[in-house]
Every structure is written in C-alpha cells, then in structure tokens.
Amino acid sequence: MAANWKMHKTRSEAAESLRALAALLKNMPDEREAAVFAPFTALAASAEALAGSQVLLGAQNFYPETQGAFTGEVSLSMLRDCGCTHVLAGHSERRAIFGESPDFVGRKTAYALAGDFSVVLCIGETLEERDAGRLGEVLQMQLAAGLKDVPDAVDPARLSIAYEPVWAIGTGRVAGPEEILEAHAKVRTFLQARFLKQGKDIRILYGGSVKPENAGEIISLDNVNGVLVGGASLQAESFSRIVLA
Length: 245
Ligand code: PGA
What we know:
This protein has 10 helices and 8 strands. The protein is of the alpha/beta class.
C-alpha cells in the first residue's frame, strides 16, 4: 500500500503526518506493507519520524549513476543515506512532464534493483490510447522496456508494478472493476511469461483516484495486490484507512 506524496509537504508537515500515520498503523496486520514516497527535501525528517515503525520510506525519483556531473540529480546512495529503501520509476508524470522515455525508465528500474532498492515500476495508458483500442499494446511496450534489463531471477519481493491509467490519476475518475481486472490480467500474463514462477508473486498495484471509500473493493479484485495513492495519501487518517481496507 503505497503513498505518493508528489510535490507536497515541508519537513515539518511530513514528520507530523508520518508520526500520525505510524500511530494509526501500529497494529497493521503482518500481511500488509505500507510505504510512503516523500519528496527529497523531507526524506531525512521522514526517516526520523518513522523510526521504530513498520512504515517503509521511498523516494519518488533518482538518477541511475553513482555520482558525478549530473546537476540537480540525486543518487541511490544519497537516498539510502536518508533512510530510503524504495523508489518509484516510470510514473506517468515523470514520463509526460519530464520526458522520461520507456528505455530510460527501464534503465532506472534495473539500476535500482541492482542497487538493492525495492522498485515500483509505474505503467498506464492515456485516454487517447485506450479509446484507440491500444491498451494491450501500450502496457506490453511499457513493461517490455521497463523490465528489459531486469534479471530473470528477480526477487519478487523487491519489484512491484503499478497500473495507473493516466485518465484516472488525480481526476476523481477511478477505473471500474472490469477495466482494472482486464489491465491487471494483461500485466500478470506478461510477468509470468517474462519471469516464469516469480511472475506470479510480483505485486501488481492499482493507482488512480484511490480513496478510503473504494480501496477495499479495488484490492479484493483478482491480481490486485495493493494500491498506489496520490491525493488521498496526504492525510494520515485517510491513508491509514486505505492501508487497513
Ligand atoms: P491520485 O494519484 O491517487 O491522486 O489519482 C495516483 C498517482 O499518481 O500515483
């Protein structure tokens, strides 16, 4: 159950939210895993606020090189130093606003896994692509490129795929159960062909306008193993209800 805070929260706002979240999730069942992807500037304060809790900390972005002349970028070792164990790759906002190509997303995914991070690889079609009947083709392309350099023997505990239809992100328009089932089945088929046995255990998250009110129904669907939440993750109370849904 993942929270993507995007470009929200100062250090003190993040720390306050996470202390509240940790308290609300104190008795989280063992089979649930919760991670918060905080902005870079709030990571160190977030790690401190989460000390002793089961909530995991992730970053929303990184650059796939160890160090060097990459002005404005942040490396995995810098993230680890701030207490992060998880990263996102391929979020549609990175693809659309910052021009990250499918190949670059693939490079990042493989790089982070090789660097012992857990990765949530995000994929999803635009409304235009869906309306043109290109759902399968787009998911296939994004998965093939995103997982191109990932070893066949990947540890399924460290790789998740988030299916996030672009038209459902931040729009209040959640995909319907049929739409989610269809897309997640396609993702599972791809993963089993690509990773054989491990492909069954890689978690597939749904993202796009998930709220406490719809989270329970969404995670009960076949091949839905969790959710990636933007807007409704900004309040600890609302995200805790989703995590416990
Ligand atoms: P949303 O964002 O929950 O605000 O739709 C989801 C995401 O972008 O990961």
